[in-house]
Design goal:
Elements (H helix, E strand, L loop, with lengths): L2 H6 L18 E3 L7 H7 L2 E7 L3 E4 L6 E14 L8 E6 L1 E3 L2 E5 L10 E8 L12 E3 L6 E5 L4 E4 L2 E3 L4 H11 L4 E2 L4 H7 L11 E6 L2 E4 L4 E7 L9 E6 L7 E3 L5 E4 L3 E5 L16 E9 L5 E3 L5 E5 L3 E2 L6 E2 L2 E2 L8 E5 L1 H5 L1 H18 L3 E3 L14 E5 L11 E11 L5 E12 L5 E2 L12 E2 H12 L15 E3 L9 H16 L15 E9 L3 E8 L7 E8 L7 E6 L7 E6 L6 E9 L5 E3 L3 E4 L8 E3 L7 E8 L3 E9 L4 E9 L2 E8 L6 E9 L4 E8 L1
Parallel strand pairs: 15-23, 26-31, 27-28, 27-29, 29-31, 32-33
Antiparallel strand pairs: 1-34, 2-4, 2-8, 3-4, 4-5, 4-13, 6-7, 7-30, 8-9, 8-10, 10-11, 11-12, 14-16, 16-20, 17-18, 17-21, 19-20, 21-22, 24-25, 30-31, 35-36, 36-39, 37-38, 37-40, 40-41, 40-42, 43-44, 44-47, 45-46, 45-48, 48-49
Helix pairs in contact: 6-7
Length: 702
């Protein structure tokens, strides 16, 4: 029986035998080995049954790492003593604070309302305000057994528990050597076990759903047909299998994911950041497997067939939980891409460095992600320091039984439209230097219980690409890999499709703030220049060409970025170099030029357009198009120096309808201003820069 099936059947609870990691072919959960229950109970200084009361992100003293502080309400003790049952402080790595976020793979994330068993040790990090007093889960994710208070079950990585009952607590007490002591009643668990008066409730049925396969986190809608769902949702919900544990547990769709709910049909978006049985998110993606509908009467029905989630895109949630958005990459180096730097120990391990670079090339040459390896880094520090570091750990920096992890650093900003944009500002990777890795290129040996390093590097780079876990064997982003298994090749319909969707929808576009758009690999530069009498010359360059069949040049005029005209095609050459294309027949006014990379499958990847004016220095501040029929007013604004500009929109009665303060760089800017919600009619746009220059222009909103 495979471990995945064992998990679904509730097998392997609190076993005292060898861990899964000790058996050839055992599965790893995204670079995490099973932690033996005996080891966890012995190493933990404190074992409690508790509820998470809150979550508050904070910076450490040097502002390099985000942590999250939680208060726990303790219901019972299974090891150790606590003086305060409502103010026990627990710290987890990563967190959210304002518009900054840090998310670590293989690392516990908790949400208020979660309950379970916590195996706690003293928080080891220096430079945090609660150092010496706070606790952290031993083994991070494996230091917490999460309760499902409705079903009276529990789960953790690698194990499920079919019942939270007296036998469950006796087994825990046998491991800790201390009898359970109840400090206060757990009312949530008591309420779930209380038997109320019998009610006659018609059970719902799930007859079918469509489509049978779709992605998570893209807004894709699943339609569920059946009967008995109820005429309104009320407290009803839809659940998907949890991709982070191979489908052993369910996760709920968020409140904002529901499109419609009737007695016979439910339409719901498939989430990549779902609720793990809670009213708030704790980050699990929906995965492949059966789906379950629970009505407002709390009667459930499960589908007879399985949904396939082909890929899941990472999403970022705002601190207050009101905004969920897919983050985009931005260009962080002079080549329009992202440079990784090896820490000293990693750079010194030539086989490890070679394996990691092969993994990078796998993504670069199949999705067009513009990654490269830069100069070695001076340290192996994993911190918010502007360096994308790949390193081995030094001592016990990683949690117990965690072989490696990826940290994504996000920053939010406000685009001119008013939208909050979250972008990836840094990525770090850290691996355990004592793990039994086979660095290749030879395959790992199952007889020696080797773990293929290139396979896990490809998987972790998928997280860096902003892809979440899948419950889909055959995909690199499948949540687990076996000891001795090779998983170095991307699945075209899953990993490649998801990676290209991340790039095309967000990262290759200019979203108004956060930094310049990525250039699609193998491109390293793109520019456009107008010379009177000669026309417009486009220049670009490539490096290490792969996943490329040629280039297409397009132009549009009058600011209409929907009416592109193809000017010509340019053949590619290997290994690449410098390219040039001249457009001699240039119309007047504001122009956009777009370079498109032709891929071997016939698809095209767009470079963010270059904008220029044939009027040169005489370009004026103007609105285009005018009248405007969509929700964005575009303003051509030439700036002789870097400045800040206030834009105000007034209606025909002189009432202010909108106001924005924007920082603009030197050159010709095209500023998008949101006019969503403005009624059709005549408006006036006023502007004033930091030097006191002012002006106005009328426009018509259709």
């Amino acid at each position: 029986m495979s471990f995945w099936m064992a998990s679904l059947l509730g097998v392997g609870v609190l076993s005292s035998g060898p861990t899964q990691a000790q058996a050839p072919g055992a599965e790893l959960r995204c670079l995490m080995l099973p932690l033996a229950p005996e080891q966890r109970a012995q190493q933990a200084a404190l074992v409690v049954e508790a509820e998470v009361l809150d979550a508050q992100g904070f910076w450490n003293e040097n502002h390099a790492r985000l942590f999250t502080r939680h208060r726990l309400r303790v219901f019972s003790l299974l090891k150790g003593q606590v003086a305060d049952t409502t103010e026990l402080v627990l710290i987890t790595e990563g967190g959210r604070l304002g518009l900054d976020q840090q998310v670590l793979t293989n690392t516990l994330q908790l949400a208020p309302g979660q309950q379970g068993i916590f195996f706690l040790s003293r928080a080891p990090w220096l430079g945090i305000a609660t150092a010496g007093r706070a606790y952290t889960p031993y083994g991070s994710e494996q230091g917490f057994i999460a309760f499902n208070t409705i079903e009276q079950t529990a789960a953790e990585p690698f194990r499920t528990y079919p019942a939270v009952d007296a036998a469950f607590y006796r087994k825990l007490a046998g491991l800790t050597g201390q009898a359970r002591r109840v400090l206060q009643p757990n009312l949530s668990m008591m309420a779930a076990t209380a038997v109320g008066p019998a009610r006659r409730v018609t059970a719902p049925t799930v007859a079918s759903f469509a489509p049978r396969s779709l992605p998570a986190g893209t807004g894709a809608v699943l339609t569920i047909d059946g009967a008995g769902f109820g005429n309104s949702q009320g407290t009803g919900f839809v659940e998907f299998r949890n991709a982070d544990d191979g489908g052993a547990t369910f996760v709920k769709a968020r409140a904002a994911d529901y499109v419609s709910w009737t007695n016979t049909r439910i339409q719901v978006r498939v989430p990549s950041t779902a609720n793990g049985g809670l009213p708030v998110s704790n980050g699990h993606p929906a995965g492949s497997g059966t789906i379950r509908v629970t009505t407002a009467d709390q009667v459930a029905a499960e589908s007879s067939s399985a949904l396939t989630v082909v890929y899941a895109l990472t999403t970022v949630e705002s601190t207050d939980g009101t905004l969920l958005q897919r983050p985009n990459h931005v260009a962080l180096n002079a080549s329009g891409g992202i440079s990784f730097r090896f820490g000293p120990g990693f750079a010194a391990n030539a086989p490890a460095a070679a394996a990691w670079q092969r993994a990078l090339a796998t993504w670069r040459c199949q999705t067009g992600m513009n990654w490269e390896v830069g100069a070695p880094n001076a340290t192996s520090a994993i911190a918010d320091d502007g360096q994308n570091v790949v390193a081995f750990d030094a001592g016990p920096e990683l949690p117990a039984q965690v072989l490696g992890r990826t940290t994504s650093y996000y920053r939010g900003c406000y685009a001119p439209s008013g939208e909050v944009v979250f972008w990836v500002k840094e990525i770090d990777m850290q691996f355990d230097d004592a793990s039994n890795f086979q660095f290749g290129p030879a395959p790992p040996l199952t007889s020696l219980r080797q773990i293929d390093f290139e396979s896990v590097a490809v998987h972790e780079l998928g997280h860096a690409h902003q892809l979440s876990h899948l419950n889909l064997p055959g995909a690199v982003m499948h949540y687990a890999v076996s000891v001795g298994q090779l998983s170095r090749s991307l699945n075209p319909a899953s990993d490649v499709a998801g990676g290209r969707q991340v790039l095309r929808v967000r990262s290759l576009r200019t979203l108004g703030c956060g930094g310049p758009a990525l250039l699609p690999a193998p491109l390293t530069s793109f520019a456009a220049q107008y010379v009177a009498g000669a026309g417009v010359t486009l220049t670009w360059a490539t490096r290490d060409e792969c996943f490329l069949s040629g280039f297409v040049v397009e132009r549009t005029a009058a600011g209409d970025t929907t009416a592109w005209v193809r000017l010509g095609a340019v053949a590619n050459r290997v290994p690449g170099g410098s390219y040039q294309y001249t457009d001699a027949a240039v119309p007047g006014g504001l122009l956009y030029y777009r370079l498109r990379l032709l891929r071997p499958d016939g698809s095209l990847d767009n470079v963010a357009p270059a904008v220029l004016s044939t009027d040169g220095a005489n370009a004026t501040i103007s609105i285009f198009p005018n009248p405007v029929s969509d929700d964005v007013l575009r303003v051509q604004y030439p700036a002789a120096a870097e400045t800040t500009v206030t834009f105000r929109i007034f209606d025909r009665l002189g009432r202010r309808a909108r106001a924005s303060l924007l920082s603009l760089p030197v050159g010709l800017n095209v500023v998008p201003l949101s006019i969503a919600g403005l009624a059709p009619g005549l408006y006036v746009l006023f502007w004033q820069d930091a030097q006191g220059r002012t002006g106005s222009s009328r426009f018509v909103r259709y």
